[in-house]
Amino acid sequence: MTWLAITMSLALLIPVYEAWQDDNIWQKMLAFASIETKTSILILLISVMRDDWMIGIVGVLILSVGNASLMLLAHVIRRLNER
Questions:
Q1: Using CA atoms, how far apart are residues 20 and 41, in angstroms rounded to an integer?
Q2: Which of 39, 73, 72, 71 is nearest to 58 (CA)?
Q3: What is the DSSP letter of 1?
Q4: 2: CB partners within 8 A, 6+ apart
Q5: φ/ψ (deg, to 5) at 23
Q6: Which of 14, 41, 46, 83 has the fewest C-beta atoms lying within 10 Å of its C-beta?
């Protein structure tokens, strides 16, 4: 189980590199959404490993609310670029 957590932590580096390298705002937002999803899944994995459901609730909140706020931000940026 710990190898899975280490592998998932290393997989977080791929979108970080992509966000750092690219100047396109949509590519950066896609990379940040990927980072947020992977982090929340990692939090859920750790909560199952520790048998601590309070940490799991935080992971679920990050997973559900984080993507919604990112999509709202994408919509606002798109509307600003239309003007």
A1: 22
A2: 39
A3: -
A4: 49
A5: -100, -10
A6: 83
**CA distance between the termini of the chain:** 50
Q: How far apart are CA 78 and CA 53, in angstroms?
A: 38
Q: Would you say 70 and 32 are in contact if contact means Cβ atoms under 8 Å apart?
A: yes
Residue showing tokens 């601590």: 52
Name 77's Cβ contacts closer than 8 Å, sequence gap at least 6.
25, 29
Overall pTM surpassing 0.70 (yes/no)? no
Q: Extract the tokens encoding 9.
A: 């932590």
